[in-house]
């Protein structure tokens, strides 16, 4: 049997907490009854510095519901940080953690399949949305664009996977080795490696309240994802520099021909060529400097250079 903890980040979620708890409690009762999880498994709410009654509700639930535990963050630091904080706080108390949003848009009935995969040796099980029938067309398009742009810019993420996933204690311990401050868990978890699998589910609508991820925050998250995982934007500048510099050589030949034909006013040739050449060289130079800054950036993250999965000896 598995000792399962749930990590549920909550930011101003007073409207959904009771509903959520009721549903999760039923699910836990069922899982325990079926012998899939131990009866000291917990549901851990992580209050991300909410400004409403979220923490009071969590404290109340802690007293009345045998499954509920709570963690309160000192202030609002955003979903990713709250989630990581929660995961790192509870990882040593259990066998595995499933992270799920407080609004239960992700299907709690996927727990069964996740646990099964875990028992079959998967250290990480990604919840992946099979379709987005209930999201608005706008949310669906922006969200799918988000994954496309991310992968085009070199940030590898699991397609259509948000932060609904199971991680074993072992995978969490490996994740703990990633010390970076600019946090993009969806990009980091695949870097951990280990045996992983995917469970598909349908995403439903928010129980109540509003999305805490408006377009602005989503763009912010995408930008964080790209800039913290990939050096492609810098490489693009270097490439641009090379292209402009190549154009300058074409311009050189062109203006030389023009000069030979006598089709120019005096001073034009040298002006044109130098504008292109200097422009190209400058962009190229910025790209090269950027390349080093990118390397320094990656070094300062102090990521583990390897994670051993097994050793036979
Ligand atoms: N959340 C958080 N801190 C924040 C913003 C959001 O902990 O600063 C939590 C929120 O309570 C929810 C989860 O992150 O549990 C996802 O937010 P939401 O459901 O609003 O995002 P969406 O599903 O619309 O992308
Ligand atoms: Mg949601």
Describe the 3D structure:
The chain has helices at 17-33, 54-64, 79-90, 110-119, 137-152, 169-175, 185-192, 215-229, 232-261, 268-300; strands spanning 4-10, 42-47, 68-72, 96-99, 124-129, 165-168, 196-201. With 313 residues, it is an alpha/beta fold. Strand 2, helix 2 and strand 3 (68-72) form a beta-alpha-beta unit. The longest helix is centred in the last third of the chain and has 33 residues, at 268-300. The protein is elongated. The structure holds uridine-5'-diphosphate and magnesium ion.
Concise account of the structure shown:
Strand 2, helix 2 and strand 3 form a beta-alpha-beta unit.
Distance between the termini: 29 Å
What structural class should be given to the helix and strand makeup? alpha/beta
Beta-strand percent range:
5-15%
Largest sheet: 7 strands, mixed
The residue ranges in which pLDDT falls below 50 over 5 or more consecutive positions are: none
Query: How are the strands of the largest sheet arranged?
Result: 3-2-1-4-6-5-7
Number of helices: 10
Overall residue-averaged pLDDT value: 87
Bound molecules: uridine-5'-diphosphate, magnesium ion
- Helix share of residues? 40-55%
Element string (H = helix, E = strand): EHEHEHEHEHEHHEHHH
What's the shape?
elongated
Integer-rounded radius of gyration: 26 Å
Strand runs, count: 7
